[in-house]
Specification:
Length: 179
């Protein structure tokens, strides 16, 4: 899983919520407009459960969750979880655009995978080029996910939301060497 997912502060899930919102704005502008602008939807809050549990609380059965986890572990880079979230957004686009209230959208996100065929989802998320022009080619999207995670982690550290563990370790080593 990506860095910080199961740390004390669980910043990994928050960062992935920001990355997801960024990519939703870029890849699904109509959905983003509907959710964020018209309904005041908070992507980071509404997708926290997806990322924190690896979709365990939103899949209709354990087998579906295990299918996604298998691919996540095979790929070993943590980016597949973001691809699954983006594929879900694409699959559910029509339902999302019908929402008239934020609560309706939040309910849809909490139950989104209950309406999705797991074979279709895994196939769509795993393709190098997902649904034609909907996604960039696989490696380019994966590189962007990595860059965006780094970008938003740095922004959160700069904003004082949490201390970068790597910087903290360097300070400890400098103090040790000074003694």
């Amino acid at each position: 899983m990506p860095e910080g997912y199961y740390s004390e502060k669980m910043e990994g899930q928050y960062i992935d919520g920001l990355v997801f919102e960024h990519l939703a704005r870029e890849l699904f502008p109509k959905v983003y407009e509907k959710l964020k602008v018209q309904l005041g939807f908070d992507f980071a809050v509404s997708t926290f459960n997806w990322f924190a549990t690896g979709f365990v609380n939103v899949f209709k059965d354990t087998e579906s969750c295990f299918r996604v986890w298998d691919v996540c572990f095979i790929r070993k880079d943590g980016r597949f979880i973001m691809r699954v979230a983006l594929a879900l957004l694409g699959i559910m686009e029509k339902d999302i655009l019908k929402c008239r209230e934020r609560k309706e959208a939040e309910d849809l996100f909490s139950q989104i995978t209950r309406k999705v065929d797991i074979d279709e989802l895994v196939s769509l998320a795993a393709r190098p080029s997902l649904r034609g022009s909907l996604f960039r080619r696989g490696p380019e999207l994966d590189q962007e996910i990595f860059k965006l995670r780094t970008h938003y982690r740095e922004k959160c550290v700069q904003a004082g939301m949490w201390v970068d563990d790597n910087d903290d370790d360097d300070d400890d080593n400098e103090e040790e060497e000074a003694k």
